[in-house]
Amino acid sequence: MTDLNNQDITETETESTTTWILLQIADSAFPTGGFSHSFGFESATKHGFVTEYNGFKGFLLSCLQNAASFSLPFVNESHKNYQTVDRIKELDGMVQAYLSNHVANRASIRQGNSLLDTACKTFGYQELKNLQVQLENKGIFGHFAVMFGFMCGLLNLSVIQTQQLFLFSTLRTVIASAVRLGNIGPLQAQSIQFEMQKTAEEIRKKFEISTVEEATTTAPVTDFLQGAHDNLFSKLFYS
């Protein structure tokens, strides 16, 4: 009985540790580079595709769908193979080949590089530093979805926690960009984020076991709008 109790305590302590890590990564103060991106929302508003509240919610839904259908398979696979550097490099190369939207591609690289740098300085694991050396030597591109899954796997977060955290970061980034652009207020933003949680979880479950061979864009208009970001004369966000 004592051994069973000790095992329960150990498992509880492990879960508590990963919860603290999860909260730290989810904190908006954790610098992953997302603050300079809008997932195409700035382009959508300035090109007149999102002009009202319902339009914003529709755009937000499309962003979540694209993140889940395209990026989540790479998050899953890199989380699963975080101990195999060659597989991580292969997945990173696949994202580079698949992500033909030049704005989304450079945003993914920039945010992934920022995440890896932050993770190295925050957590200090040698595996992270080794991957950063690969990045500095141009052995990898450092795409965000792959770096995210790799980091979370290394930190012992479960695949479900990792998926939820990834979609949460997408949700928060788009909503935060709407606040900074003046489309919604901060309190309304929190209400929308709470309202979208159930939908985000439903989307996660739909794509939770998708493979990288099944990675696809399910909301192409949103993808096109992000690609048009460079056509803006003046802009607040990098993408």
UniProtKB/TrEMBL annotation:
Keyword Transmembrane among record annotations: yes
Membrane-crossing segments per the record: 140-160
GO molecular function: nickel cation binding
InterPro entries cross-referenced by the UniProt entry: UreF, UreF_sf
Keywords annotated in UniProt: Chaperone, Membrane, Nickel insertion, Transmembrane, Transmembrane helix
Family (UniProt): Belongs to the UreF family.
Stated name of the protein: Urease accessory protein F
Organism the protein comes from: Stylophora pistillata
Underlying gene: UREF
